[in-house]
Amino acid sequence: MSHTQATIEMMFPSELGYEKIARDAIGTLARNMGFDAERVEDLRTALSEACINAIEHGNQRQAHLRIHITCTISRNRLVIVVSDEGLRFHPASRLATASIEQKLAGLASTRGMGLMLIGQLVDECGFLPSRPGQGNHFRLAMYNPPRRSATA
Amino acid sequence: MIDDELKVTTRQRDGVWIIDLEGDVTTFAEDAITSAYEKVTAEGAKYVIINSRQSDYINSAGIAILIGVVTEVNRKGQKLAISGLSAHFQKIFRMVGLAQYADIYAGEDEAVEAMHKLVKAA
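^ inputs. structure came back:
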């Protein structure tokens, strides 16, 4: 694979299940970039969780709305932006995740772990600035070799 | 359009009930997994293993279903172990805290052996 910057784009309907296609594609891409097997799995899981958030929250599972994925590849970095059409704005301030104890006690939904997982699996992640009606744009980045920080 | 295929079966092995999962564990798995758990519980299961076989895709919605099972296991005083996860999904289960409430084993034999130790100690 060339070391010059390249961009790959994917687009699919807001139906659960399509994220598996994006997950497989990103796995192939990351392997070709030389990421090790564990980091490829981390990225596959992180991307599928970002897509599920976009399908369920951003686009409210309305199949006619699109999920758009842009992958920007450079020598040592893969940056992915997952965008929805933003029926529901997803403010970055809503990132708190309930603990497993709260979930087991029935005090919180058993769902809502996706963003927490993504944050632990990739080097950088976060929502890009956006306004209501402009869609949500969630950015993930992985470096090879790894570089860990908390924000986009 | 994209099928989410999950085959869920139950069996008993040396006094331990095993729920085998083959396929994707996602939001669409809820009825199948919950029904299997209710079935083994109705059979009197005290020791339950959820055994993942060839599950290449487990997402947070699938993990949420398993958290629901753990809630019921705790309520009913049963013991639960999870086996057959890849190293990646073992890591994911630790990240979400599920490994604190269900012992995670690489293989079914190891999980059954651990359950037998619990049976003898009881």
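Helices of chain A lie at 19-32, 37-58, 100-104, 114-121. The two ends of chain A are 26 Å apart (CA to CA).
thumbs up if we can close this ticket
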